[in-house]
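Write out this protein's structure.
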Amino acid sequence: MRNYDWKDEYTLFMSGLKVTQNNAKLYNNVGHALEARDRQLEALSYFRKAASVQPDDIGAFINIGRAYAAMKMYKEAESAYKKAMTLMPKVKPGQTYQTRIAPGYLSVYVNLANLISKNESRLEEAEALYRQAISMRSDMTQALINRGDVLIRLNRTRDAHESYRTALRYDDDNPDIYYNLAVVFVEQKQHAAALENFEKALQLDPHHRQSLLNSAVLIQETGNEALRPLAYQRLYHLLELEPGNEKAYFNLGILEMDDKDYKNAEMWFTKAIQEKPVFRSALFNIALLLSTELQSPLEAVPYLQQLLKHYPDHHKGLILLGDIYLNNMQDIDGAEKCFAKVLETDRNHAQARHNLCVVYVERGELARAERCLSSVLRIAPQEEYIRNHLGIVRAKINDLGTKSELDARHLNPTNGALKVEL
């Protein structure tokens, strides 16, 4: 049994410590045994003991850093990794670094880079550390892969491509590398090359989850009709491997929307939200689906309220909710608040400003509405619906002498078409 094996290993190393308390390797081994059982705090105490027994033990400080990182104590982890780096032997002229240090110790550069790359402001620093590791050992595949990942985030896709290609020279049957190359090609809009590399990843590992998901997304986004059945198949396969994958549910919903199977799309979006109640795109898309294709705008309201609770500045959500308030619930004040909220963060948002003008029309404030629409038209002169609505308002103002009230129902506050948010 697994527990018995671990218990025996732990007991073995502990029995060694009863004989000698000055062996750093034994303390490290006890720590590893505890670490394997996810008992990080206890493991840390043994790694720290190893470092106290042997203050120049590079491995002990790497272990300390790893334990801290596992406990999300990143500042302490960084300090431990940097301490390990200070203990590295210095390069001497005419001697390669690789021959003077255990290859495992070079992992400290990768570990530290992985840690600081969590901070977007320190990506350049992380990239330099990966480069340093690679300069010491050119076949350090994980450093090459991780460096490529950081380079993508730095928008240096050509350099990322080169890093992954170099990694393939040392590890040409690694599906992760082909997946990462596919991501580079997606960023470069080379969709055929991206699909080819997703395929290579899946040939090596038919259960490669990221490739299953992202190849399906790419097929959907590029509108490749011939491959759409494959996109469905891959998302279903991903759900077999990971039944609660909200991204798989969401993208099945998008596929069903494209295929105009709106009830199934609603089902998949609902499943995505059940798995992740703060799933922004799923919340908006199900609301959009309900309010438009399924003609159930009132059912969309709770989803929009949930969306705006977590993402209060979601412009499309605010505009859609304002539209429902105005056209379906006759809540003019609620609609005004929604449109005004958009303008707090984007004063020149043409659709929000136009819709606010429609609020004035609904209140009978025609002069204010005319000034409002004139202002919006200056911002977006290319939008014919604004020009048309301004003409209608001006005609109504001129006609007020013969008409007792204004019928503005044909001023649709969402004539600027809402699009699915991906």
